[in-house]
Amino acid sequence: VNIDEKISSVKFFVDEEYPHLRIKDEKVCLKCNEKPCLNFCPAGVYRLTEEGSILISYQACLECGSCRIGCPFENIIWSYPRGGFGVNYKFG
Ligand code: SF4
Ligand code: SF4
């Protein structure tokens, strides 16, 4: 099995009604100079807008949990997706 086949075995069940990721206060992000969320997320969920705020593509989240500890201002609300939603890892 090659790596592309492995990656394609990761499936997402996107919950369109309930984003499991949210920024608490966008004003805090504007003051956050380092913006480590742009780097610590392996899925590239956090992106910078031209206005300097953070855009979240929660649909791509791999549920690694890094953003719960990575944001220096604890400005990210993160919970596991509702039952039946989110990433689905197939092992083996
Ligand atoms: Fe906002 Fe936290 Fe990202 Fe800083 S690290 S830009 S406070 S989400
Ligand atoms: Fe990115 Fe991991 Fe946070 Fe999901 S849990 S947004 S993959 S850092």
Beta-strand residue fraction: 15-25%
CATH topology call: Alpha-Beta Plaits
Average pLDDT score? 87
CATH class category name? Alpha Beta
The kinds of small molecule bound in this structure are: iron/sulfur cluster
What profile does the largest beta sheet have? 2 strands, antiparallel
Order of helices and strands: HEEHHEEHEE
In the predicted model, the low-confidence regions spanning at least 5 consecutive residues are none
**Residues in helix, %:** 10-25%
Separate helix tally: 4
Which keywords apply here?
alpha+beta, globular, 4 helices, binds iron/sulfur cluster, Alpha-Beta Plaits, two-stranded antiparallel sheet, 92 residues
Question: What secondary-structure arrangement, pairings included, does this model have?
Answer:
Layout: H1 3-8, E1 11-13, E2 21-23, H2 26-31, H3 37-40, E3 46-48, E4 54-56, H4 66-70, E5 76-78, E6 86-88
Antiparallel strand pairs: 1-6, 2-5, 3-4
Bound molecules: iron/sulfur cluster (SF4) (2 copies).
One iron/sulfur cluster binds next to helix 4.
